[in-house]
Every structure is written in structure tokens, then in C-alpha cells.
């Protein structure tokens, strides 16, 4: 049977499609073109020289390792932390849990550069209200805290505190959609709080968890503001090319090499899109009750 054309649905989708082409697919297509144009020689030669230059640059692989270590620390802590807090709040739903949701969400209200400056002041012993505690741990100056070996942990800590609140609220909302009958049946079967959480609640919100992983992964790959500001303040911790996004920024706006910067942006796009596709295709992310 021929399907009826849905004008209302098309009108809702059309603005997104326009924005997707103008601000998504269009710039991506231009980046692909620019990545093959060699700006360094000034001749405009077309080829793979930008890719060879980026992969052979001494700054590239350290930036890759920094971002990989950062993701290895931050992403698991973020996912586990969000789920634990959300499950605890859902298990003890009350006015107290409402106050705790607000408390968790508040750090997320201070985001971006403001949160980084706030954390710098909290960790710098000469500025921090926690200076006695820092000195008790043997940390007398900012140079002892903002060392290159500490940066991935510091950036993971900042990203966790600023991002965990909003995801707790989202996961708590997802948990609220679980039928009370299902939870009551689990309780009648003798399931305790932990078993209910692991075998009933988590499977019910698995798509929300997957969505969080995809967005957090894409966000983590684009790490920029934290290392850029910390290096700008300290001039010793990190470098102008500590992360991949910083490296691309340095290539474009310090070296004027937009072709090589386009290679970095395409690399980030491929990594985040590839990881999202793997997660989506290997799960039932888009499956609905009708499809089952």
C-alpha cells in the first residue's frame, strides 16, 4: 500500500536538514577539499602532503596519547559515576533526592572557561581556600600540582564535575519511565536493590546510556579549552598542542596551515562518527517496540 506523504513531519524535519547541510555536511565537505590542498608551499598543490605532514609531525602522536589517556580516565568514571548516582537517587526518591539532584546539577551551571578558572583557583595553593589541605599533602605551590604528568587527571576531574550533574538528571528522568508494575513484580520475586538495578533498571535505560557514551566520547575527543587555558595561565603545564584540537588550532592560526588543520578536524570527525556507528550498529539503538 502506498504511504501517504506526511507534510507535517517534513516541515518539522526540514529546518534540521537545512542546518545539517549548512553547518555540518557543507563544512565537512570543504574540510575534505582543504585537506588535500598544500598551503605550506604557497603553490596550492593538491595531494596527500598534508596527511603526510600531520602524521610525521613531532606534535601529533603525543597529542593523540594525551587525548587517549584522558578518555581512558574520564569516560569510564563519567559513565559509572552517573549511573551510580542516578540509581541511588531513584532508589531513594524523596524530597532529599530532589535536593541532591539540584546539588549535583549546580556545578554544571559553571561550564567552559569559568569552570576551568574556578578549578585553577581551587588547586593553586596561593589562591585556594583548601590551601591547608593541599599543603598537608605536600603540595606547596602551583608548579607542584600543574605538572604535565598530572594534567590528564586534572582535566578529567574538571570535565567530570561540570558534566556529571546534567547526565544524572537525564538518567534519573529515564529511570522514572520504568513501569512501577515491573519494579513491583521484581520486588515480589525477591529481587533486592542491587539485583533490580543491574537486571531491571539498567537494561531499561541502556539506550540512554549508549547515547551518553556517544556524546561524551565526541566531546572528549574535542578537548581544547582546558589545556589551552591552563597552559595560557601557567606557561609550563602542557603546551599549545597538548590535545589534537589544540594542535589543529595551532596549525591554522599560528602557522596559517589550514590544510593540515583540516586533516586534524577530519580525523576527529572520523573517530567520533566511527565510534558512534559501531555502538549503534552493534546494539538495538534504533529498535522500537514495533520492530521487536
Automatic annotation (TrEMBL):
The keyword Transmembrane helix applies. The chain crosses the membrane at residues 12-33, 67-90, 102-120, 153-175, 208-225, 258-281. It comes from Longispora fulva. It is a multi-pass membrane protein. This is Multiple sugar transport system permease protein. Belongs to the binding-protein-dependent transport system permease family. One of its GO terms (biological process) is transmembrane transport. The keyword rRNA processing does not apply. Signal peptide: none annotated. One of its GO terms (cellular component) is plasma membrane. Keywords: Cell membrane, Membrane, Sugar transport, Transmembrane, Transmembrane helix, Transport. Residues 63-279 form the ABC transmembrane type-1 domain. It comes from the Bacteria. It is found in: Cell membrane.
